Amino acid sequence: MSVIAPASSEQVTAKKKTALHSFARMMRYLAMRVLTLFSTVVIGVYLTILIANMGGYVDQIIRGEIRDSITQSVANNPTMRNMDPETRRKLIEEQIALEEKRRGLDTPIAVRNFRHLTNALQLDLGRAINMTSDSGSKQVRLILLERLPATLLLMGTSQLFLFFSSLYIALNLSRNYGNFWDKLVIALSPTSAIPSWFYGIFLILIFAAGVKVLPFGGMVDSPPPLNPFDYAVSVLKHLILPGGALIISSFFLSVYNYRTFFLIYSSEDYVDMARAKGLHAKDIERRYILRPTLPNIITNFSLLIITLWTGALFTETVFLWPGLGRTLYHAIGLYDTPIIVGSTIIYAYLLAMTVFLLDFVYAAVDPRVRVGN
Q1: Which domain holds residue 184?
Q2: Angle between helices 228-266 and 180-188 (to 10 degrees)
Q3: Of 120-124, 147-151, 219-223, 265-269, which one has max mean pLDDT?
Q4: Which of 32, 128, 191, 240 sits between 20 and 30 A of 266, alpha carbons compared?
Q5: Nearest Cα to 341, choosing from 17, 41, 109?
Q6: Alpha-carbon span 241 to 239, nearest angstrom
Q7: Which phi and psi (to 5°) does residue 108 adopt?
Q8: CB count, 10 Å around CB of 42?
Q9: 46 CB contacts (<8 Å, ≥6 apart)?
Q10: Residues 113 and 183 in one domain
Q11: Per residue in 262-312, pLDDT tens?
Q12: 16 is a domain residue
């Protein structure tokens, strides 16, 4: 009968030192990772503020709009119109100065940019300049939240269908490499270079203006049906064309990408060894093909989830879909900087958190990955 000797005090001390060293290394890695991602978010948001304000050109546009609006208002007022020209001019200048002060235009642009950055990082999104929510509020937070459900419906439905259907079809194509369908997908993959809104215009011409079986745009019929079932059917009809445009524009390239990954891993030596041992084809796919590609699949799925927030800028505009993409399009046209910055900072935070968490997900699904190394 064998007896296991107890560990010596030196061995216990060495294990504790190793554990403490590993913990300290992990903490250093996490601290540096958080600092790097936060710095990236700060730089990205600040550049967004500079670009959205066009280096101060938007301020000149707003000042011009203020001056035109106040001058027109005074000119249309009979009492002020009969004033002495010099008195009227002073009154106009005073009102212009008050309005510029109210909007913060009397503060240097560098100070305002830093203030915008600080507020954005604290998720204090402030008030929009020109746009309002459906309830009449100028709070950026309310404007974005009101548009979010429509974008989640459109982008979630189309992108999730695209993701899972691409995986399924790509796996089947990798099993039948070189057949007709495989060659067809390869041949059609360049069609994904065409943007979704371009496909959307053709779908409108065919199904809305041509055969007239689907509506042109919007999210629901006008007036909206009162019955919940009819309302859901109406939303579904309006969803088909924009969702179809988003799917068609990326479908073949998505299938081609996943099919290429599956083919790369299916040609590895250990896969040939597993086939020689007589393992079932499904077991080989699950253990030796799908599992090594999990980091790539998880990355694509994670980025897909956070891009739901951004919406489809031009596709939503073409189909008059009341989502975040169309809202951002209007904000750019109206030089509404708070809307642009608010949408950007939320996406930046989502992206940074996703990248941070993916390190741990990779370590969980792939034994070759070690967090902190």
Answers
A1: 140-365
A2: 110
A3: 147-151
A4: 191
A5: 41
A6: 6
A7: -55, 145
A8: 14
A9: 113, 117
A10: no
A11: 888 877 777 778 778 777 777 777 777 777 788 888 888 888 888 888 778
A12: no
Instruction: Return the ∠ at Cα 310 (arms to 371 and 206), rounded to 5°.
Output: 130
Whole-angstrom Cα distance, residue 251 to residue 265? 22
Q: 107 and 39 in one domain?
A: yes
Task: Tell which of 94, 121, 148 closes a domain.
Answer: 121
Token output for 369: 């990955």
Asked whether the beta carbons of 265 and 288 are under 8 A apart, the reply is yes
Question: Region 204-216: what's the mean pLDDT?
Answer: 87
129 belongs to a structural domain: no
**Single-letter amino acid code for the residue at 174:** S
Strand partners, 127: 139
* Token pair belonging to 251: 């479908």
Query: Within a domain: residue 327?
Result: yes
Q: Is the previous residue joined to 223 through a cis bond, with omega within 30 degrees of 0?
A: yes
Q: 140 near 302, Cβ under 8 Å?
A: no
Kindly indicate the confidence band of residue 1, based on its pLDDT and cuts at 50, 70 and 90.
Answer: very low
Which of 156, 178, 150 has its CA nearest to residue 326?
A: 150
Residues 159-170 have pLDDT tens digits of 999 999 999 999
Q: What's the token pair of residue 342? A: 């608010």
Beta-strand runs (E) in the chain: none
- The answer to whether residues 243 and 281 touch, using CB atoms and an 8 Å cutoff, is no
Q: How far is CA 345 from CA 55, 297, 311, in A?
A: 19, 26, 15
Helix (H) or strand (E) holding 182, with range, is: helix 180-188
Residue 357's pLDDT band, with cuts at 50, 70 and 90, is confident
Domain total in the chain:
2
Query: What is the per-residue pLDDT across 29-49, written as a single tens digit (0 to 9) for each?
Result: 888 888 998 899 999 888 888
Distance CA 29, CA 254 (A): 34
Last residue of a domain, one of 121, 150, 173: 121
Query: Identity (one letter) of the amino acid at 198?
Result: F
